Amino acid sequence: MSIIDVKKLFGFDSYVEKIEVPEVPQCRKQDIPVPSSLYVFNKDALNDLLMYLAEPINDCLYISGSAGCGKTSLVLNAAGYLKWGVQQITVSAQTEAADLIGRPILKKGEIVFEYGVLANAMKHGEILLINEIDLMKPGELASLNDVLEGRPLTVTQNNGEVIKPAKGFRVIVTANTKGNGEGFGNYQGTKILNVAFLDRFRFLEMTYPEREVEKRIVQKCNPKLKEDFIEKILDMADAFRMTDKGEGDNTLSAPFSTRALVRICCMLGQSDKITLNKALDMSYGSKLPEEQRAFVTRMCLDFFGNKASERN
Question: Environment class of residue 159 by beta-carbon count within 10 Å: exposed (0-12), middle (13-18) or buried (19+)?
Protein backbone atom coordinates (compact mmCIF):
# COMPACT_ATOMS: atom_id res chain seq x y z
CA MET A 1 0.00 0.00 0.00
CA SER A 2 1.21 3.55 -0.72
CA ILE A 3 0.22 6.74 1.10
CA ILE A 4 -1.19 9.52 -1.11
CA ASP A 5 -1.12 13.18 -0.02
CA VAL A 6 -4.60 14.31 -1.09
CA LYS A 7 -3.94 18.06 -1.07
CA LYS A 8 -0.77 17.67 -3.13
CA LEU A 9 -2.52 15.42 -5.66
CA PHE A 10 -5.82 17.29 -6.09
CA GLY A 11 -4.77 20.78 -5.03
CA PHE A 12 -7.36 21.55 -2.35
CA ASP A 13 -8.04 21.01 1.34
CA SER A 14 -10.23 17.93 1.71
CA TYR A 15 -11.88 16.12 4.61
CA VAL A 16 -9.01 13.64 4.58
CA GLU A 17 -5.31 14.48 4.29
CA LYS A 18 -4.00 11.10 3.16
CA ILE A 19 -5.33 7.95 1.49
CA GLU A 20 -3.78 4.49 1.47
CA VAL A 21 -3.87 3.05 -2.05
CA PRO A 22 -2.99 -0.50 -3.23
CA GLU A 23 0.21 -0.66 -5.25
CA VAL A 24 0.85 -2.53 -8.49
CA PRO A 25 0.94 -5.54 -8.87
CA GLN A 26 -1.76 -6.11 -6.21
CA CYS A 27 -3.83 -3.48 -7.97
CA ARG A 28 -3.28 -4.42 -11.60
CA LYS A 29 -1.88 -1.72 -13.87
CA GLN A 30 -4.31 -2.49 -16.68
CA ASP A 31 -7.24 -1.83 -14.34
CA ILE A 32 -6.18 1.72 -13.45
CA PRO A 33 -8.34 4.25 -15.36
CA VAL A 34 -6.75 6.99 -17.45
CA PRO A 35 -7.99 10.40 -16.23
CA SER A 36 -9.64 12.62 -18.83
CA SER A 37 -7.83 15.86 -19.68
CA LEU A 38 -11.28 17.49 -20.05
CA TYR A 39 -12.55 16.52 -16.62
CA VAL A 40 -13.11 19.14 -13.90
CA PHE A 41 -13.80 17.89 -10.37
CA ASN A 42 -16.72 19.08 -8.29
CA LYS A 43 -14.89 19.57 -4.99
CA ASP A 44 -17.86 18.73 -2.76
CA ALA A 45 -18.52 15.44 -4.55
CA LEU A 46 -14.81 14.64 -4.68
CA ASN A 47 -14.55 15.33 -0.94
CA ASP A 48 -17.32 12.84 -0.17
CA LEU A 49 -15.79 10.23 -2.47
CA LEU A 50 -12.31 10.61 -0.99
CA MET A 51 -13.66 10.32 2.55
CA TYR A 52 -15.29 7.02 1.60
CA LEU A 53 -12.20 5.69 -0.17
CA ALA A 54 -9.99 6.62 2.78
CA GLU A 55 -12.11 4.83 5.37
CA PRO A 56 -15.29 3.01 4.28
CA ILE A 57 -16.14 1.78 7.81
CA ASN A 58 -17.65 -1.39 6.29
CA ASP A 59 -19.89 0.73 4.06
CA CYS A 60 -20.38 0.80 0.34
CA LEU A 61 -21.07 4.03 -1.57
CA TYR A 62 -24.26 4.74 -3.54
CA ILE A 63 -24.01 7.70 -5.95
CA SER A 64 -27.34 8.90 -7.31
CA GLY A 65 -28.15 11.67 -9.76
CA SER A 66 -29.65 12.58 -13.13
CA ALA A 67 -28.28 11.05 -16.31
CA GLY A 68 -25.05 12.59 -17.51
CA CYS A 69 -24.26 14.56 -14.34
CA GLY A 70 -20.87 12.86 -13.89
CA LYS A 71 -21.40 10.01 -11.42
CA THR A 72 -19.24 7.42 -13.16
CA SER A 73 -16.67 9.92 -14.43
CA LEU A 74 -16.14 11.20 -10.87
CA VAL A 75 -15.10 7.73 -9.72
CA LEU A 76 -13.00 6.87 -12.77
CA ASN A 77 -11.10 10.16 -12.80
CA ALA A 78 -10.45 10.13 -9.05
CA ALA A 79 -9.26 6.52 -9.27
CA GLY A 80 -7.06 7.44 -12.21
CA TYR A 81 -5.33 10.19 -10.25
CA LEU A 82 -4.95 7.90 -7.24
CA LYS A 83 -3.64 5.02 -9.43
CA TRP A 84 -6.33 2.74 -7.95
CA GLY A 85 -7.62 -0.11 -10.10
CA VAL A 86 -11.31 -0.26 -11.03
CA GLN A 87 -13.48 -3.20 -12.06
CA GLN A 88 -16.49 -1.72 -13.82
CA ILE A 89 -19.78 -3.19 -15.02
CA THR A 90 -23.10 -1.73 -16.17
CA VAL A 91 -25.96 -3.97 -15.12
CA SER A 92 -29.49 -4.51 -16.37
CA ALA A 93 -32.61 -6.48 -15.52
CA GLN A 94 -30.94 -9.53 -17.12
CA THR A 95 -27.79 -9.34 -15.00
CA GLU A 96 -27.36 -12.17 -12.50
CA ALA A 97 -25.16 -12.42 -9.42
CA ALA A 98 -23.02 -14.94 -11.36
CA ASP A 99 -22.17 -12.18 -13.87
CA LEU A 100 -20.50 -10.32 -11.01
CA ILE A 101 -18.92 -13.32 -9.29
CA GLY A 102 -17.90 -15.41 -12.30
CA ARG A 103 -18.79 -18.74 -13.90
CA PRO A 104 -17.23 -21.80 -15.53
CA ILE A 105 -16.56 -21.41 -19.27
CA LEU A 106 -15.18 -23.61 -22.01
CA LYS A 107 -11.71 -22.44 -23.02
CA LYS A 108 -9.44 -24.35 -25.42
CA GLY A 109 -11.40 -27.53 -24.84
CA GLU A 110 -11.27 -27.28 -21.04
CA ILE A 111 -13.71 -26.04 -18.42
CA VAL A 112 -12.11 -23.17 -16.51
CA PHE A 113 -13.53 -20.69 -14.05
CA GLU A 114 -13.61 -17.09 -15.26
CA TYR A 115 -13.75 -14.58 -12.42
CA GLY A 116 -16.22 -11.73 -12.62
CA VAL A 117 -15.69 -8.09 -11.68
CA LEU A 118 -16.64 -8.65 -8.04
CA ALA A 119 -14.22 -11.52 -7.52
CA ASN A 120 -11.41 -9.69 -9.32
CA ALA A 121 -11.93 -6.51 -7.30
CA MET A 122 -11.84 -8.51 -4.06
CA LYS A 123 -8.73 -10.44 -5.05
CA HIS A 124 -6.73 -7.38 -6.15
CA GLY A 125 -7.96 -4.74 -3.69
CA GLU A 126 -9.64 -2.69 -6.39
CA ILE A 127 -12.77 -0.55 -6.62
CA LEU A 128 -15.85 -2.39 -7.84
CA LEU A 129 -17.98 0.11 -9.79
CA ILE A 130 -21.52 -1.07 -10.65
CA ASN A 131 -23.45 1.31 -12.88
CA GLU A 132 -27.27 1.45 -13.12
CA ILE A 133 -27.65 -0.63 -9.95
CA ASP A 134 -31.40 0.13 -9.78
CA LEU A 135 -31.98 -1.80 -13.02
CA MET A 136 -30.82 -5.12 -11.53
CA LYS A 137 -33.30 -7.47 -9.86
CA PRO A 138 -33.37 -6.96 -6.07
CA GLY A 139 -33.34 -10.73 -5.50
CA GLU A 140 -30.03 -11.07 -7.34
CA LEU A 141 -28.54 -8.18 -5.39
CA ALA A 142 -29.56 -9.70 -2.05
CA SER A 143 -27.08 -12.53 -2.60
CA LEU A 144 -24.29 -9.94 -2.29
CA ASN A 145 -25.28 -8.60 1.13
CA ASP A 146 -22.59 -10.48 3.09
CA VAL A 147 -19.83 -9.40 0.70
CA LEU A 148 -20.96 -5.78 0.92
CA GLU A 149 -20.34 -5.92 4.65
CA GLY A 150 -16.75 -7.03 4.15
CA ARG A 151 -17.16 -10.79 4.56
CA PRO A 152 -15.38 -13.31 2.30
CA LEU A 153 -16.97 -14.47 -0.94
CA THR A 154 -17.63 -18.21 -1.29
CA VAL A 155 -17.59 -19.23 -4.94
CA THR A 156 -19.67 -22.39 -5.02
CA GLN A 157 -19.18 -22.84 -8.78
CA ASN A 158 -15.41 -22.99 -8.31
CA ASN A 159 -15.26 -25.85 -5.81
CA GLY A 160 -16.29 -23.62 -2.91
CA GLU A 161 -13.30 -21.28 -3.25
CA VAL A 162 -13.23 -18.61 -0.56
CA ILE A 163 -12.03 -15.16 -1.62
CA LYS A 164 -11.17 -12.77 1.18
CA PRO A 165 -11.39 -9.05 0.37
CA ALA A 166 -7.90 -7.65 -0.11
CA LYS A 167 -7.06 -4.37 1.55
CA GLY A 168 -8.23 -1.64 -0.80
CA PHE A 169 -11.42 -3.38 -1.93
CA ARG A 170 -14.28 -0.87 -2.22
CA VAL A 171 -17.80 -1.09 -3.65
CA ILE A 172 -19.37 1.92 -5.39
CA VAL A 173 -22.66 1.85 -7.27
CA THR A 174 -24.34 4.52 -9.38
CA ALA A 175 -27.97 5.04 -10.34
CA ASN A 176 -30.40 7.68 -11.52
CA THR A 177 -32.63 6.97 -8.53
CA LYS A 178 -31.94 6.32 -4.85
CA GLY A 179 -33.37 2.81 -5.08
CA ASN A 180 -36.88 3.88 -4.12
CA GLY A 181 -38.37 4.25 -7.58
CA GLU A 182 -38.75 7.31 -9.78
CA GLY A 183 -41.96 9.24 -10.23
CA PHE A 184 -41.41 11.25 -13.41
CA GLY A 185 -41.11 8.39 -15.90
CA ASN A 186 -37.69 9.50 -17.18
CA TYR A 187 -35.92 6.30 -16.08
CA GLN A 188 -38.00 3.38 -17.25
CA GLY A 189 -37.12 -0.02 -15.85
CA THR A 190 -35.69 1.21 -12.55
CA LYS A 191 -36.66 -0.87 -9.54
CA ILE A 192 -37.39 -0.36 -5.88
CA LEU A 193 -34.43 -1.95 -4.12
CA ASN A 194 -34.53 -4.00 -0.94
CA VAL A 195 -34.06 -1.83 2.18
CA ALA A 196 -31.68 -4.42 3.66
CA PHE A 197 -29.49 -4.04 0.57
CA LEU A 198 -29.61 -0.23 0.70
CA ASP A 199 -28.72 -0.28 4.39
CA ARG A 200 -25.18 -1.34 3.41
CA PHE A 201 -24.55 2.03 1.74
CA ARG A 202 -23.75 5.61 2.51
CA PHE A 203 -25.24 7.97 -0.09
CA LEU A 204 -23.82 10.71 -2.28
CA GLU A 205 -26.36 12.68 -4.32
CA MET A 206 -24.91 14.45 -7.35
CA THR A 207 -26.43 17.21 -9.42
CA TYR A 208 -25.18 18.94 -12.53
CA PRO A 209 -21.96 20.85 -11.87
CA GLU A 210 -22.05 24.39 -10.55
CA ARG A 211 -21.95 27.02 -13.26
CA GLU A 212 -18.26 27.87 -12.84
CA VAL A 213 -17.31 24.19 -12.97
CA GLU A 214 -19.43 23.59 -16.07
CA LYS A 215 -17.91 26.69 -17.64
CA ARG A 216 -14.42 25.31 -17.13
CA ILE A 217 -15.52 21.99 -18.65
CA VAL A 218 -16.85 23.77 -21.75
CA GLN A 219 -13.68 25.84 -22.08
CA LYS A 220 -11.55 22.70 -21.91
CA CYS A 221 -13.53 20.80 -24.53
CA ASN A 222 -13.57 23.74 -26.97
CA PRO A 223 -11.07 26.55 -26.24
CA LYS A 224 -12.22 28.44 -29.38
CA LEU A 225 -15.58 29.39 -27.86
CA LYS A 226 -15.97 33.05 -26.89
CA GLU A 227 -16.92 34.15 -23.39
CA ASP A 228 -20.34 35.57 -24.35
CA PHE A 229 -21.25 32.37 -26.22
CA ILE A 230 -20.32 30.21 -23.23
CA GLU A 231 -22.42 32.36 -20.89
CA LYS A 232 -25.43 32.12 -23.21
CA ILE A 233 -25.20 28.38 -23.71
CA LEU A 234 -24.97 27.90 -19.94
CA ASP A 235 -28.05 30.12 -19.52
CA MET A 236 -29.83 27.96 -22.08
CA ALA A 237 -28.80 24.78 -20.25
CA ASP A 238 -30.22 26.20 -17.01
CA ALA A 239 -33.49 27.00 -18.79
CA PHE A 240 -33.77 23.46 -20.16
CA ARG A 241 -33.10 21.98 -16.73
CA MET A 242 -35.91 24.00 -15.19
CA THR A 243 -38.38 22.23 -17.47
CA ASP A 244 -37.29 18.57 -17.31
CA LYS A 245 -39.47 17.80 -14.29
CA GLY A 246 -42.21 20.32 -14.81
CA GLU A 247 -45.72 20.13 -16.12
CA GLY A 248 -47.42 21.24 -19.31
CA ASP A 249 -46.51 21.58 -22.98
CA ASN A 250 -42.96 22.75 -22.35
CA THR A 251 -41.93 19.80 -20.18
CA LEU A 252 -38.83 18.04 -21.51
CA SER A 253 -38.86 14.27 -21.16
CA ALA A 254 -35.05 13.90 -21.12
CA PRO A 255 -32.63 15.81 -18.89
CA PHE A 256 -30.22 18.24 -20.51
CA SER A 257 -27.05 16.71 -19.12
CA THR A 258 -23.50 17.98 -18.86
CA ARG A 259 -22.71 15.15 -21.27
CA ALA A 260 -25.06 16.72 -23.85
CA LEU A 261 -23.53 20.16 -23.27
CA VAL A 262 -20.01 18.83 -23.80
CA ARG A 263 -21.13 16.95 -26.91
CA ILE A 264 -22.55 20.16 -28.44
CA CYS A 265 -19.42 22.20 -27.74
CA CYS A 266 -17.10 19.47 -29.02
CA MET A 267 -19.12 19.19 -32.24
CA LEU A 268 -18.85 22.95 -32.74
CA GLY A 269 -15.08 22.58 -32.36
CA GLN A 270 -14.92 19.83 -34.98
CA SER A 271 -15.99 22.00 -37.92
CA ASP A 272 -16.72 25.66 -38.58
CA LYS A 273 -19.48 24.51 -40.95
CA ILE A 274 -21.79 23.12 -38.27
CA THR A 275 -24.41 25.42 -36.75
CA LEU A 276 -25.42 25.55 -33.11
CA ASN A 277 -28.95 24.44 -34.06
CA LYS A 278 -27.53 21.38 -35.82
CA ALA A 279 -25.24 20.47 -32.92
CA LEU A 280 -28.05 20.95 -30.40
CA ASP A 281 -30.46 18.82 -32.43
CA MET A 282 -27.98 15.98 -32.97
CA SER A 283 -26.81 16.03 -29.35
CA TYR A 284 -30.15 16.46 -27.62
CA GLY A 285 -33.23 17.63 -29.52
CA SER A 286 -33.61 14.67 -31.87
CA LYS A 287 -34.17 12.25 -28.96
CA LEU A 288 -37.31 14.16 -27.90
CA PRO A 289 -40.90 13.97 -29.19
CA GLU A 290 -41.51 16.40 -32.05
CA GLU A 291 -43.30 19.07 -30.01
CA GLN A 292 -40.49 19.08 -27.42
CA ARG A 293 -37.89 19.11 -30.18
CA ALA A 294 -39.54 22.21 -31.65
CA PHE A 295 -39.58 23.84 -28.21
CA VAL A 296 -35.82 23.24 -27.83
CA THR A 297 -35.21 24.86 -31.23
CA ARG A 298 -37.33 27.88 -30.26
CA MET A 299 -35.43 28.23 -26.98
CA CYS A 300 -32.14 28.20 -28.86
CA LEU A 301 -33.39 30.99 -31.14
CA ASP A 302 -34.54 32.99 -28.11
CA PHE A 303 -31.05 32.87 -26.64
CA PHE A 304 -28.92 33.16 -29.79
CA GLY A 305 -31.16 34.71 -32.45
CA ASN A 306 -30.01 34.24 -36.04
CA LYS A 307 -26.57 33.15 -34.83
CA ALA A 308 -28.10 29.79 -33.91
CA SER A 309 -28.54 29.04 -37.61
CA GLU A 310 -25.28 30.59 -38.78
CA ARG A 311 -22.03 28.74 -39.32
CA ASN A 312 -19.24 29.49 -36.89
Answer: exposed
Q: Express each pLDDT in 251-297 by its tens digit.
A: 788 889 999 999 999 999 998 889 999 999 999 999 999 999 999 99
* Backbone dihedral angles phi then psi of residue 267, each to the nearest 5 degrees: -65, -40
Residue in 217, 304, 223 with CA at minimum distance from that of residue 259: 217
* pTM attached to this predicted model: 0.88
Peptide bond preceding 25 in cis form (omega within 30 of 0): yes
Question: Going by C-beta distance under 8 Å and a sequence separation of 6 or more, which residues neighbour residue 274?
Answer: 267, 268, 311, 312
> Cα 244–246–248 angle (5° rounding)?
115
Name 139's Cβ contacts closer than 8 Å, sequence gap at least 6.
Answer: none
Task: Report the run of H or E that residue 15 belongs to, with start and end.
Answer: none
Q: Distance of CA 158 to CAs 18, 36, 161, 209, 251, Å?
A: 38, 38, 6, 44, 52
Q: Which residues, at least 6 apart from 35, have a Cβ–Cβ distance to it below 8 Å?
A: 76, 77, 80, 81
Contact 233, 269 (CB under 8 A): no
